[in-house]
Specification:
The protein has about 240 residues and is an alpha/beta fold. The chain has helices spanning about 45-65, 115-150, 185-200, 210-215, 220-230; strands at about 1-10, 10-20, 25-30, 35-40, 70, 70-75, 80, 85-95, 100, 105-110, 155-160, 165-170, 175-180, 230.
Length: about 240
């Protein structure tokens, strides 16, 4: 893999060229590295022009990636956010796996290794179940609080691990489901999601009336939406 540099917008950028048996040029980010996949027959000036043409988009993507807050990680630094507090993960080795949250640390008692991918796959669902048990009374308390203020009532509520949604409101049945991962965030962010889903019991859409009512109870909702968008909680 060749390493090249290019001068763009008063700055020197480094990129890597990987020559392959292919027909077209491709560009991607791997972490903070710019990787070009190029056919063997393409000359360097053509590759440089291709990189320069796509650099504005890559620069924006790098800035967006830099703004993302990772809230749960095993490697290289093991930590987890609990109610917006960053806690280092401390491992104590013993045969039976269990978890404990202290004032300043998240303790895992286990014979498994955080550096082993197979062990991580075993630990992760156990951690999520532990977090679910902690999150349930917190979400239920916030739900009851906001139901009284908004004057709507959910018929039932549940917690679930979801990849793309922070909450779901089933308007016809009155059921609300929250993402377990909300436990990583502050009470203000949790309240925004609770308000959002409760307002869906009134307006089952995202039109102007819906957002006006959300803003009435959560004036800073745009900031909380941004926090959720710019957070990574997937391992």
């Amino acid at each position: 893999m060749e390493v090249k540099t290019i001068f763009f917008q008063d700055q020197t950028w480094q990129y890597f060229i990987n020559y392959r048996q292919q027909k077209h040029l491709y560009l991607k980010l791997k972490g903070e590295q710019i990787i070009v996949s190029a056919p063997f027959f393409v000359k360097l000036p053509t590759i440089e022009e291709f990189v320069k043409k796509n650099l504005p988009k890559l620069i924006k993507q790098l800035k967006d990636n830099a703004a993302i807050v990772v809230r749960f990680s095993f490697n290289p630094e093991a930590f987890i956010y609990f109610l917006d507090q960053k806690l280092p993960i401390i491992v104590n080795y013993q045969p039976r796996t269990k978890f404990f949250i202290g004032d300043e640390s998240f303790f895992i008692y286990t014979s498994l290794s955080l550096n082993n991918k197979n062990h991580q796959a075993i630990l992760l669902p156990k951690i999520n179940q532990f977090l679910k048990n902690l999150a349930r009374p917190i979400l239920l308390e916030r739900l009851k609080y906001w139901q009284k203020i908004i004057k709507v009532t959910a018929n039932s509520f549940d917690l679930r691990l979801m990849k793309t949604k922070w909450g779901v409101c089933f308007h016809e049945t009155g059921k609300i489901v929250f993402n377990i991962k909300l436990i990583h965030f502050s009470y203000q962010v949790i309240d925004y999601v609770v308000i959002h889903e409760l307002v869906h019991l009134i307006y089952p859409h995202h039109q102007k009336d819906f957002w006006n009512l959300v803003a009435l109870y959560c004036p800073d909702y745009r900031n909380y939406k941004k926090i959720l968008k710019n957070s990574k909680v997937e391992l």
